[in-house]
Design a protein that fits this description.
By secondary structure, the protein is α+β, with helices and mostly antiparallel strands. The protein has two domains: about 10-175, Transposase Inhibitor Protein From Tn5, Chain A, domain 1, CATH 3.90.350; about 215-274, no CATH class. The chain is built from nine helices and nine strands. It has helices at about 35-50, 65-75, 90-95, 95-110, 155-165, 170-180, 190-215, 225-235, 255-270, and strands spanning about 10-15, 20-25, 55-60, 80-85, 110-120, 130-140, 140-150, 240, 245-250. The strands form three sheets. It has a five-stranded mixed β-sheet with strand order 3-4-7-6-5, with helices on both faces. A two-stranded antiparallel ribbon has the order 1-2. A two-stranded antiparallel ribbon has the order 8-9. The longest helix has 23 residues, at about 190-215.
């Protein structure tokens, strides 16, 4: 991105359903965590109001590894798993796993992954926190990863494999929003106008999210928004308007009639909200 005009949007998604929770435009030189505390405060408050008995879990990559976020999540009793940038002190804590991982790889010629956890305190932290370390040995060499978490009742491999790595689902949602819904088309001259355009792209994502939700039980229940657009929206039809109705006449050879009818029927049966 050198020598280019760019933005650095901050996006948040529900980790289970993929529903977008926030879309905030920021300047291109903004740090990954800029504005995250304010957005998290609002999201946590709204989630607790809507689901007072629910356990809230935050997942984020190393861009969100800042003390202000840890302190907020801990004060709000929110669980978290956040990636850490590797440094010498962290590597020293997993050095004991490097040799066993290499020996096992040499013996079985298969990728080896070993996990551990330890207490760690960076200079900017008010106290020590639990850090999960992963040492991976493969034909590509050694690879180490670290995650800070306040989840105590889970093993290191569970925290990493079952909780932390699921953050990649957010990457898939970002891909859909940017690549398929063209959310990177922010060509207005004013910043606020481009923020509004980002919201419009996000609203389009919400509409397609609801469409996908109404396709449960069909082959399109897990389809990407691009697949939904091509198979259910980008369809030639004859539109006839009368006094009482608008009639869409679909082609007889349209191959996704069953899925289209299922989605339409489910949408028509949805209760109206005022």
């Amino acid at each position: 991105y050198y020598d280019q005009h760019m933005y650095h949007p901050l996006l948040a998604f529900d980790g289970v359903t993929g529903f977008p929770l926030a879309a905030v435009l920021r300047p291109g030189n903004a740090h990954a965590s800029t504005g995250a505390v304010g957005i998290l405060k609002r999201l946590i408050r709204r989630l607790k109001q809507a689901y007072p008995e629910a356990t809230i879990l935050f997942r984020g990559d190393a861009g969100f590894a800042v003390p202000d976020i840890y302190d907020l999540l801990e004060s709000e009793k929110v669980l978290y798993t956040i990636g850490l940038i590797t440094n010498k002190l962290l590597r020293n804590n997993v050095e004991c796993l490097s040799q066993p991982a290499k020996l096992k790889f040499d013996q079985f010629d298969e990728k080896q992954r070993l996990f551990t956890s330890f207490q760690y305190r960076a200079k900017s932290w008010k106290r020590s926190r639990r850090v999960v370390g992963k040492v991976e040995q493969s034909s590509d060499g050694s690879n180490t990863r670290f995650v800070v978490s306040n989840i105590l009742m889970a093993s290191p491999d569970q925290i990493y494999d079952d909780i932390y790595v699921r953050r990649c689902e957010a990457e898939n949602r970002i891909k859909e929003l940017k690549l398929y819904l063209k959310a990177d088309r922010l060509s207005c001259s004013r910043f606020k106008a481009n923020q509004f355009r980002l919201l419009l792209h996000t609203f389009a994502f919400v509409l397609l999210w609801h469409l996908r939700k109404n396709l449960v039980g069909t082959e399109l229940a897990t389809a990407t928004v691009e697949t939904l657009r091509l198979k259910l929206l980008k369809v030639g039809a004859l539109v006839t308007q009368s006094v009482r109705r608008v009639l869409f006449t679909m082609p007889r050879a349209y191959p996704y009639q069953t899925q289209f009818a299922a989605a339409l029927n489910n949408i028509q049966n949805m209760p109206l909200r005022c």
